[in-house]
## 1
Amino acid sequence: MTTLNGMNVAILAADGFELAELVEPRKALDQAGASTFIVSPANGEVQGWKHFDKADRFKVDVPLADADPNDFDALVLPGGVANPDQLRMLPEAVRFVRAFFDSDKPVAVICHGPWTLIDAGVARGRKLTSWPSLKADLTNAGAHWEDREVIVDEQLVSSRKPADLPAFNGRMLEVFAASRERAAAGAAPQGTRSTGPRAGDLRGGTH
């Protein structure tokens, strides 16, 4: 079983994220021992959707305005149309996402989530997948798009839709674990990192 004890994982989401694409990866990460934190521009709680209908709301653990990429070891970007469409328009969200790529930290993105990668300037030259309607946008941004359930390109894991979640979660755990092992062996990504937030310090409530 993959063990991610000691890893702090940010899940960046705005109102309108696809419910399963946050809940299922978070469950897999929590079960593997990671500490997960919902980072959001939303105030207090962030609204999930199940396709075209409102679903559950979740406590925001770390407001985006207070989030420091150096406090986290990995990033998850759920999909849903409205979610990344808001994030890509927020300079602080774009900077937050780009920081993980600049520090060579692992990122897992699904469905419409790769929209934010375009605005962060990190799509060019990468092999990835997404919801099919993003193919032209990603190709125009210089990415190599493929219609596959999951693609791993170095530290980037991507999938197309909720039906791909079993494969997505499995490869996400593998890539995150490999990054953790490299860090433990002394081959941490470039740049400085803090010791990271503790769940009791940042998580403001239950979800």
Note: Residues 125 and 143 are 5 Å apart (CA to CA).
## 2
Amino acid sequence: MAVDSGESAFPESGPGPGRHDLFINVLGASFSITAGEDPQYLNDVLEQYRLAIANTQGISGMKDPLKVAILTGFLLCDEINKLKLQAEEEQVAAEKAIDRVASLVLHLDKGIERAHLTNG
């Protein structure tokens, strides 16, 4: 089955319920893996990897499949780490905002309580 032709990367018969075979054909290597993920998701991941390979080849000019695969993996790990750092920074900012809102609510509650005691 040729993946590059736009055909599904999944053979007609799978390995069992909830498990799917994915045929991978990239950088001159062809093999199958079995995964418990949705077939469409796996096809999407494979397409994303193909685009990452093309990007790596475009920016590096490399043609050697092993070097391209290694550099692509490295660049993807770099992207994952940057996204993790961004998520952590956003989490810290969100926690600070929550603390600030809680402090403002407490301040308002105290103000309302004083107003009731003074007018009450």
Note: Residues 108 and 114 are 10 Å apart (CA to CA).
## 3
Amino acid sequence: MIAVAVNFYRSIPLIGIYLHLIFVYFQETRKIPSIYTLEEFHSKCKEYPWLTTDEEGRLLCSTCKEVSTLKIDQAQGVYIRSQWVTGGVSYSGDNVSKQKTSLRRKIYDHKNSMTHIRAGEIVEESKKDRLKKGFKEQHEGQFETTERLIRSAYAVAKNNRP
């Protein structure tokens, strides 16, 4: 929602610059998991673009969160885990090294899970203009029929036939 407002107001020079700065500041100051430094977390986000945090600094998957409400195309054994949607991904271990290893393993497992792969496919499919293409294909047949009728009417009129 914020991104839409920022994109709309970017067309107005001063307001657009001001809102863009606020948006960047908000993105840079969001909370991150306590075991990561800011640089480490940014490198993780570059490696896994779907990885993000909520307001409290808990990890979640933006792709799975986007698809979670749709409830479409669920195959047997494929379901979206609520921990990746609500930010309940946690780490275990008694020191920072073990905690990072635990979290790294969970991120890797989630990236390769059928649920995340299918959610990515659904998001990509939703970005396509399937509805426009469907209408276009539907009306192409009607256009061809109309074109043939007009040609027939033209031929009848040209040859003075009743």
Note: The first helix runs from residue 2 to 9.
## 4
Amino acid sequence: MKRRPVARTKRKAKPARRSRRETREELALRAGQLFARLAAEYPDAHCELDYRTPYQLLVATILSAQCTDARVNLVTPEFFARYPTPRALAQAERGDVEELIRSTGFFRNKAKSLVGMAQALSEQHGGEVPRGMEVLRTLPGVGRKTANVILGNAYGINEGVTVDTHVTRLAARLRLSRQTTPEKIERDLMALFPRADWTLLSHLLIWHGRRVCIARRPRCEICVVNELCPSARVPRLHPDGSSR
């Protein structure tokens, strides 16, 4: 008499173990290590917009919205030759400005902001770019990000962290912030890093984002912070070809 095969019950798969969430102290320690490695990798990190004066940096930063720094740097020499001061730009015909900056994109809105900004500087600030966050943000075309760029680079004032698309991307990949809006990401970064490092932090993240941690295919295999990055896809390759 044949025995009926005993039906085997399938074992339930164990739920995937969730990685333990980093404590605040562990995150702060890792953030410091990230900063040190990036600073060593990019000792010359700086704002890549070409400028000589606060006015020139302000113009270049407004032009850089939705545009590469390289493209802006192609446009600004002729722009500053024609409009060397806020007073000169304040008297410009908007159509002339539009033609000059057309290749940077959104040229109509940018021209409106530039002329309005120059008029405000000439009429309310004696032709000088202000040194305060709140007063800068009253200028046409100037939000918190642009104000941070001006204060940190033209005046050496660490009022905040400049959060652009690169900083947003790296803050998420490095798990420095779980927020999605620039204001909240900036707040998280300001809490993690010393005030004296805020401007340099932006430069380091931007440089790394442009050169290694690019948007579509991050080059994890050559990343100096690979071991510290929760999003690393592959191990880092060392000079001898190993991934130890």
Note: The radius of gyration is 24 Å.
